[in-house]
Amino acid sequence: MNLLDSIKERTKEDHQSVEKVLITELKSLSSMEQYGHLLERLYAFYKPLEDEIQLAIDTTFISDISARKHTERLLQDIHAIHASFKPDTTFNPLSISSTSYALGILYVIEGSTLGGQIIVKMLDKQLSVTSVGAHTYFDSYSEETQKMWTSFKDSMLKIEATINEEEMIRGAKETFSALQSHLTQTKS
Ligand code: HEM
């Protein structure tokens, strides 16, 4: 079993759990206002985390690390819904103890792009988010999504020998769990 099989296997339940929370919320959305609020909460969570990840992981680990950013698109979608937006800065990012831990966080962030196509379809049925241009975060890398995921996995396997597997899995598990708590606590 390689490092990626292992992280997938050991975070399977964490994924199922956060997916359930997010799907329940997505299904309950009945206005663009509510969707905007969800995006703002995701921005509050991901922005500080993304900033830290970009500092913690350099191109010797992930050659295209600077392309693996998603919060600009979140901001774009929020602005497509309403122009004025004051970011909530109450979320304390996870404390990154090592590069392996940071790679675990990045695994969760990059993996979350894979459910995006399903989510955009769900959102379009309910709210036609694409028609107002508020779909770009969940659409992530769009038609390049699979390619970006494959190249992320290739990069991880290339540096497998330098990664502390337990630390990486801890980073991923703590990210899943922090996101789930954040979504639950900030739901109005
Ligand atoms: C509505 C919510 C979600 C749906 C429908 C969904 C769906 C999916 C799907 C279809 C895959 C690909 C499975 C495969 O090809 O093997 C996937 C993988 C993944 N998702 Fe989600 N997902 C959701 C939410 C999330 C969230 C919120 C996160 C993280 C914050 C996340 C993290 C991941 C990760 C890390 C993987 C990669 C698993 C692996 O192959 O190692 N997902 N998801």
Model description:
This protein is mainly α and 188 residues long. It has one domain: Heme Oxygenase, Chain A. The protein contains nine helices and no strands. Helix 2 packs parallel to helix 9 and helix 5 packs antiparallel against helix 8. It is globular, with a radius of gyration of 16 Å. The site of protoporphyrin IX containing FE has 15 residues, from helix 2, helix 5 and helix 6.
Blueprint of the fold:
Layout: H1 3-10, H2 12-28, H3 32-56, H4 71-81, H5 99-111, H6 116-127, H7 136-139, H8 145-158, H9 165-185
The structure holds protoporphyrin IX containing FE.
What are the salient characteristics of this protein?
188 residues, mainly alpha, Heme Oxygenase, Chain A, 9 helices, 0% strand, binds protoporphyrin IX containing FE
Order of helices and strands: HHHHHHHHH
Task: Give the low-pLDDT segments.
Answer: none
> DSSP helix count?
9
Q: How would you sum up the global shape?
A: globular
Average pLDDT, rounded to a whole number, is 96
CATH architecture: Up-down Bundle
- CATH H level: which superfamily? Heme oxygenase-like
User: Which molecules are bound besides the chains?
Assistant: protoporphyrin IX containing FE
Q: If you consult CATH, what is the topology?
A: Heme Oxygenase, Chain A
Indicate how many domains the architecture comprises. Answer: 1
Percent helix:
55-70%
Query: What percent of residues are in strands?
Result: under 5%
Structural class: mainly alpha
Number of strands: 0
Q: Work out the radius of gyration.
A: 16 Å
What is the class in the CATH system?
Mainly Alpha
Main pleated sheet: none
Distance between the termini: 42 Å
